[in-house]
Amino acid sequence: MSAIDKAKNKLEDAAGQAKEKLGAATGDPDKKNEGKADQTKSNLKDAGEKVKDAFDH
């Protein structure tokens, strides 16, 4: 996995965590769920990159 892809995934995960916390703090379930979805998407991208790396080696 390239360092750029890894950094993008970490940023997306951090943004998702922030959205989730903001939604929880403000009582906005949509924002909270959006944050969780962003984190899940980031984790799936990270897993996909790891699979690609496994086949490259």
UniProtKB/TrEMBL annotation:
<protein>
    <recommendedName>
        <fullName>CsbD-like domain-containing protein</fullName>
    </recommendedName>
</protein>
<feature type="region of interest" description="Disordered">
    <location>
        <begin position="1"/>
        <end position="57"/>
    </location>
</feature>
<dbReference type="InterPro" id="IPR008462">
    <property type="entry name" value="CsbD"/>
</dbReference>
<comment type="similarity">
    <text>Belongs to the UPF0337 (CsbD) family.</text>
</comment>
<dbReference type="Pfam" id="PF05532">
    <property type="entry name" value="CsbD"/>
</dbReference>
<dbReference type="InterPro" id="IPR036629">
    <property type="entry name" value="YjbJ_sf"/>
</dbReference>
<feature type="domain" description="CsbD-like">
    <location>
        <begin position="5"/>
        <end position="56"/>
    </location>
</feature>
